Amino acid sequence: MSDAGKSSRSPHKSVKTKPIRPNKPATNASPDQSQQKKTTSRDSDDSEDEQPESAPLPRSHTPGHLASKSINHRRRKPSDLSIRQRSQSASQVASNSGSSTYVASLPSISNGADPPAESEESEKKQPSASRTTSSRGSRKTLTASATARQTTKITRPPRGQHVPFPPLPDAESAPDVEPAPASGMYWSKAFVSGSPHSNLRAHTTTLIGSNIYIFGGCDARTCFNTVYVLDADAFYWSAPHVVGEIPMALRAMTCTAVGKKLVVFGGGDGPAYYNDVYVLDTLNFRWTKPRILGDKIPSKRRAHTACLYKNGIYVFGGGDGVRALNDIWRLDVSDPTKMIWKLISGPENAVSSSGTETRPKARGYHTANMVGSKLIIFGGSDGRECFDDVWIYDIETHAWTSVNMPMTYRRLSHTATIVGSYLFVLGGHDGDEYCNDVLLLNLVTMTWDKRKVYGKPPSGRGYHGTVLHDSRLLVVGGLDDDEVFGDVFILELAVHAYYSQISHFTIEV
Fold first, then answer.
1. Which has the closest alpha carbon to 135: 150, 147, 120?
2. Count of CB atoms within 10 A of residue 412's CB?
3. Which of 114, 162, 181, 403 sits between 20 and 30 A of 49, alpha carbons compared?
């Protein structure tokens, strides 16, 4: 899907890498694990607010309950190295060890990842010389103990061979693509290398620095709790070795960057829904589960959205397995070890007694973006209807406002990325089919604009991930009617990249 014409517009750095050896096959798999069958049915994400007056959407576009059975029903100093170096090193260690840590089953979670108190006491009683001599051995013992007590396994596909950087395509055999002006936006397929990774949908895609962190999601058969890192400059994949209190396999959760940490909330798999909070430190790749203070927590959900504003993550909507939701919760993340939930806006009826809509209808698979104190909600579905509306919630005044537009577009499972004063909407489903067009919402005039894009676009898809880096929008994975993708596409913004320089504007609605 790439061509020689693109390579001149999107130069890539070449990176020297060490080959990553594949894992030896695990020999101690349990009978339950060996009997797991592949399932070809794609799960759907799912709300069941069924009403007879309109035809329901296909199950794959609904945020509530899934009636079918689950597709995964069992359940030197580091600071001196770059993130990608640590990731590659850890991947090589995991591959060479032939460990059976990566298995398909998901036993119950154990919170015991800390070293035993007895070991600390006995070490204190040792003479100083003895303590120094045995420090290396005790470290190994503690690591083995922590690994044994950690019962949540990483669910990932079998490791394959290291992917070398692909050669540039031959100009004669490359697809015939229309020439593009220098000022035009341009699609191209990224040349990637590094650690093998699975095809993914309903995963999270979060940018910190120049690294894209991909967590969880599903392929056509099962869900994962794997962390991948994609270097957005070199397009190099790595699968770092993670430790700590690892989340269960998830899809349709949210992942929010708070400094150098990633905060994951909610998600689920099949009929299972969760409302747990996990934190991944991207400096040492350790998962922790913060202590939640207070007794108020949001209901279990997936297909929701989460945005950061003033040390608080604002969660809106989603589905809880029975119905779609339209409540807003705030998670205080000023302390990554202890957090507290607060209900900001309850799950109220969207229509007042006079018949006017006062807030968005309950929904999932929408998008949410934060501009100043304004939360912008677009699209989504309640399981019956694919929405085309835009709503603004002012966090300071706690007021909802509906945006009236002369032209609208229905979308769910799309992505929406802020580029200056514009919202770039890519892909998604319009209620009839998957799309691959690019929509721009002008946040000053609150009008939609559809721009011509050159190059060879990705196939229509939803449930993908998009980030903005270096004047490009990078699209990772996704799903269409027939296939789950593992590719990476680049949308060169060209002259539209200057939008990102627009930082002072207000949303007046």
1. 120
2. 30
3. 403
